[in-house]
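Practice problem 4.
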């Protein structure tokens, strides 16, 4: 019988010492992998498509359902990660597996327990973010933004709702729209960004706070992840990240065991802020500024200056409290050379919503731009830029 009272937050407790296998190596399977807690290793993925057998989805091997015949059925929890759940449920029953859960139900129950964002989240709908409908310059920028964002219903509609929210000073737009249309993933990790099979991933991670990003990157990319450049100017956070890394255990799907992340990924940590060039700036209340305001003075650098020029950067992620545009300008050479995927927060400054997409499109017009919510928060947006 399919369980309906389990969600992704308590899945680890439910699975316990059993093996977790997924059935379905498609878009839904990728969504499920993104939502599964890092502490739960997925033994393998089953799929009925023979063309997928022997291949990998996010580092996890895809096998024929016949492989389950040789498994101890009482030792397996099967998560159906396919839209054909009724058909697969019958197939699993025929194979003698009865401990079955579905991504559809887990995602629904997880979302229903998701804490709702405050209607007055800082830097999303504050007074400085309101748009004056009579401001012709801003209206022109918004028109340009609509033009350069990909003609995809979700991006356009989400952008439209956020613009209306700012313009008419309303926060209450359709939350069901976000939950229904948004691909389930942790912040920064969309299937648009990670759908391609890019080898030898070398990533810039701007704005760490903790080491969770590293685990998500490895969970999604597996042994393709070779190197991470991590930047965190807060001394308190930086010290915690270094301590976390010593004990950061991940499940290696090649070795089939938990190992220290640093054994398989070259992680370069820098206690620096990202900007247009090297120098000093101030951070105050978690917001970066080079204006000399009171706060903690920290060193800063540019991506172009600090990255090994022999490295081919495959992705740049920026969540750096308002310094995103400066960091992109400081990565101009890397972006033009490597055309990395870009994940950039758009909500720290009022004008980021249009200035960041316009800068990327002006720099290299071949980038395709998508708008995504940051987790399930209403007006907190990310830009996902991809150059095929």
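Answer key:
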């Amino acid at each position: 019988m399919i369980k309906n009272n389990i969600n992704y937050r308590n899945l680890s407790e439910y699975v316990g010492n059993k093996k977790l296998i997924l059935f379905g190596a498609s878009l839904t399977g990728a969504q499920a992998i993104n939502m599964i807690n890092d502490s739960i290793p997925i033994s393998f993925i089953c799929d009925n498509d023979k063309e997928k057998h022997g291949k990998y989805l996010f580092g996890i091997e895809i096998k024929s359902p016949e492989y389950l015949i040789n498994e101890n059925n009482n030792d397996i929890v099967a998560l159906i990660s396919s839209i054909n759940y009724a058909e697969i449920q019958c197939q699993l029953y025929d194979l003698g597996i009865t401990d079955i859960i579905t991504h559809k139900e887990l995602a629904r129950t997880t979302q229903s327990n998701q804490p709702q964002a405050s209607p007055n989240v800082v830097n999303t709908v504050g007074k400085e973010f309101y748009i004056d409908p009579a401001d012709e310059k801003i209206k022109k920028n918004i028109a340009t933004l609509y033009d350069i964002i990909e003609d995809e219903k979700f991006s356009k509609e989400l952008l439209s709702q956020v613009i209306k929210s700012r313009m008419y000073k309303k926060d209450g737009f359709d939350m069901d729209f976000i939950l229904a249309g948004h691909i389930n993933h942790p912040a920064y990790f969309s299937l648009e960004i990670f759908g391609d099979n890019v080898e030898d991933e070398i990533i810039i991670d701007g704005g760490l706070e903790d080491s969770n990003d590293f685990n998500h990157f490895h969970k999604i990319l597996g042994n393709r992840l070779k190197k991470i450049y991590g930047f965190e100017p807060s001394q308190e956070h930086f010290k915690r990240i270094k301590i976390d890394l010593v004990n950061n255990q991940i499940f290696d799907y090649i070795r089939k065991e938990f190992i220290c992340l640093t054994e398989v990924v070259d992680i370069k940590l820098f206690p620096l802020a990202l900007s247009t060039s090297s120098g000093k700036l101030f951070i105050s209340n978690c917001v970066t500024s080079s204006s000399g305001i009171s706060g903690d003075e920290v060193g800063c650098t540019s991506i172009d200056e600090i990255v090994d020029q022999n490295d081919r950067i495959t992705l740049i992620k920026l969540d750096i409290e308002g310094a995103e545009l400066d960091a992109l300008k400081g990565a101009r050479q890397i972006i033009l050379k490597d055309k990395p995927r870009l994940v950039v927060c758009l909500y720290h400054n009022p004008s980021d919503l249009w200035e960041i997409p316009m800068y990327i499109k002006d720099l290299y017009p071949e980038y395709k731009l998508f708008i995504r919510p940051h987790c399930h928060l209403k007006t907190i947006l990310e830009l996902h830029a991809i150059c095929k």
